[in-house]
Input
Amino acid sequence: MLLDYTSSAHYVLALLPEVVLSVWGMGILIAGVSRKHQGGAGQELGWLTIAGLAFAALANGWLYFGVAEEAATAMIALDRFRLFANWIFLLGAGFAIIVSLPYVARQKLQAGEYYSLILFAAVGMMFMASARDLMVIFLGLELMSIGVYALAGFNRRDRRSAEAGLKYFLLGAFASGFLLFGIALIYGATGSANIAVVADAVRGGTAVGALMGPGVALLAIGFAFKVSAVPFHMWTPDVYEGAPTPVTAFMAASVKAAAFVAFLRVFLVGLDGLYDQWWTILWWIAAVTMVVGNVIAVVQSNVKRMLAYSSIAHGGYLLVALVAANDVAAAGLLFYLLVYTVMTIGAFAIVVTVGNQSERNSMIEDYTGFGWRRPLLGLLMTVFLLSLAGFPGTAGFIAKYYLLLGAAEARLWVLAVILVLTTVVSYWYYLRVAWYMWMKEPEAADGPHVAAVTPLSTHIVLVIGVALVILGGVFPDVALDLAAASVDGLREAVGGAAAAAGP
Amino acid sequence: MTDLLASLRYEDWILHALIWLPLVGMAHVVVSSPERAKNLAFAWSSIVFVLSLGLWWGYEPGGGGFMLESSTPWIESWGVSYALGVDGISVFMVMLTTFTSAIAILGSFEYVKTRRKAFYALMLLLETGVLGVFLATDIFLFYVFFELTLVPMYFIVGIWGGERRIYAAVKFFLYTAVGSLLMLVAILYMYFGGGAGSFGYEAFLNADLSLREQLWLFAAFALAFGIKVPVFPLHTWLPDAHVEAPTPGSVVLAAVLLKMGTYGFMRFLLPFFPGAAQHPTVVAVMLVLGVVGIIYAAWVAAVQPDAKKLVAYTSVAHMGFVVIGIFALTLNGLQGGMVVMISHGISTAALFLLLGMMYERRHTRLIEDFGGLGRAAPLFATAFVITALASIGLPGTSGFVGEFLALLGTFETHALAAILAATGVVFAAYYMLPMVQRVLFNKLDKPENRKFPDLSRREIVILAPMVALMIGIGVHPTPILERMEPSVQRVLERVEGAGAALDSASAGSPDDGPPGYAGDAGPGPQGRVPATTARED
Output
């Protein structure tokens, strides 16, 4: 089916996954209000939410395989890049919800609001991926952020959660301001907020340089906040530590993924012509992010905080793909985000389990002997950690290798060396969890995690996650081809747009 | 025998079976009960060992290229394939691995008493990893296996090790990872910069690299393998890992994991960067590091109160012989290096097993706690003496053949290095013989040692084949030497051919293309053929 936007129904079709999810989110909200806290209602609502995600994923699949757009000029992109990214967000949201099920029940959180906020945040992410207009990116970003601000402070009875919510909100609003001001300046410089038009203006040299430079810089700062790149990462550890752990998992995986996807489209497509000016800045940000994230993670004794710094470090690896700015790197970024989503949420799911569906036991000492007490969970955690470390045999290695491949094609050898050396640093803190789990003998016979209850649903999602991680490490071909096909034409689209939207 | 193997279509499946059967065994161990785990693990590793014996007949030396080759696309979009093959260098490493894995598993029956299922599963996983390293002919695949060996070893040292096991395990892991990750970047550089376009061995050989590029890439590869070997200043992880590792861990570490480094030198470093390998500065540096390693490690070993640490340092010294043998760039030197690798794999593994038996009986490894064991346990003492003599290279043992050839080969090109290294043989006697004397002879003055039980039947089964191999190779090394010669020759010709090409290019004379080492060209490249084939047997 070909969409040319001659009828307004085409817009609905082009946004089908987003529409499905929005409607579903409202439904969940209403259902939550009417059946608050009654028995296992929270669990049912959770599963209902997952059904909505599944429908959205199906709609997304229909768009991916069955629908094409006529020209790359509309505000909403209908390219495979967006649709592949959508799957990543939906997968992340689904995993996060399954991990949340026992947590929400145990902490007596308002299930309806909780799950619908996750859905709305996911809709925001999908808008960010689909935006071919800077304003749509901003709207998507706000939709996502507001949902996640509320989620971060969702546990009102926990002071740290409230602190995390407030901190995230204040700094996030600040970052949004930067982003919006950047958009305004770019609009002033080029006369449009449409990425394709901006790209043409930049290439054609008609953009006003005095406005364009600051605009790009502010835009970069706004995105750097959202992907928590150093030196704009200060909020990350506190927010990740304080937020309810399943929300942290969702933030670390999906929010970051959405920010990266939009970052990539704006910089690689819209501002491609200014590559010579922005690549050194991003080069340094990437290098510093990898070094600082990994080095600070080494000294963390709180596992949630350690994973927060580790997610900063992963952001640094992903920035390498932006600096490389070629098709291999773009596909690598998509593949990495997919793998990163699975392994990050997997690792956080174990943190939730060790914490006994609460915020306790998050120090590394609490993991002493966990492996031998709960061999299956210990083994799964070990695989997730090895994958996060990028060890061969896991999808994390293939993903990291993909990024290196992109860097190598762009001849960024120094950045590649920094990437692998900081990876060695990361081995230290990932392995530290493993050695606490398997190599240290617990002092007391009954550690904190003896009583830990893990519902079947968590087990299932973890086993699926590990299966994906191993499968992606051993037989990555299908996913690699899909990722490579998804960036096909992403960057060439601009030239076509220029022709189609020509004067 | 050859007919039997042919009727089984041995060559079609053997390499795959060697790699994946230990993994099947691992799955079997995991689903079994802890009591049966050790027998199952031994059974599976024995099956793998027996199957690998067929390579002695199945591998036909000739041409020197890879035999029993197979290749299936693995990650097609990146040009990665699951390609296996074996040549005269790797065939012995494979057999050494299957042999020592089975022996190490048998040797851990008494030593490992806790968490047995996990232990034997990890041992089998380790075997898969190491065999993959020696059999892979695709660089990507090689790298995956090379890294994969780290994980099981990390857990074996970290869980079943001694007092400072976590420190040792992490140090081992991080040291090795630094080198191998830099090698990954170098591999990528060759893939792109070198214009190789595929990760196949032949494609990498044909990569077009300037001397400057070769030197950088050489450094990255040499660092990765040099840490593994370990070459002198990079060796500090080894004593820690050896001392803290449980006996079977030490055995596998000494016998095969270190060989992955020297194997990498021969398989990748020399053929990929022949220009760099011939560079006088590079050769000088490597020879100096080798000689310093031999002498320094011998001196350090001599003052160790802990017998296991002493043996750990002897590993560094032995690997020094391999390094000088390889970088002498002569046929004798390379062959000597190979034989030292095999001999060290057997004798040091046996020493670690013997020390493990001492530890199981007395729960100490300090030399001063023993004395006069020769009277209490004559069989044990006999095995100990033979192994120690093989380790220091007494004529008639495998150690002598290797060290003699390595020194001879080094003497042909670098006499001074050979003379200095030869003093290492003397120092070896200086550290090993007093240890043997203080443990086995002297007075039987400690009451605990009077009841020191002699070897059990299981222990005899472990040690007998090892002692037989040490003496067998020492007396009649020809079958081994003639099997490895074509492949070693090929490495040498590749290096020298490229050196000649570089010389002629710098002299401005017309260059007739890259040196003849295209893998499919078969034997007889036009490089200079070394005249020395004299051997002492």
Notes: Residues 327 and 335 of chain A are 12 Å apart (CA to CA). Chain A has a mean pLDDT of 88.
